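Annotated sample (chain length 59).
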Amino acid sequence: MDVTQEKDVRIAKLKKALEKYGIYNEEQLNAAIKEMKPLNIGCMVSPVPSVKETAKNII
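Output written by the structure step:
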């Protein structure tokens, strides 16, 4: 399968997944995005260690 065919397969899968939510065109997709609640990604990131913590781990 070449790159173009792979792209077509991915697009078809995406369209099929969107149809499950009643989204059949770009206007419906844009409307659904505008109606989405804000996504809290704070739970997906790790805290950055301080310089002191990093130094303790090196020594």
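Annotation: The chain has a mean pLDDT of 88.
Annotation: The CA atoms of residues 3 and 9 lie 10 Å apart.
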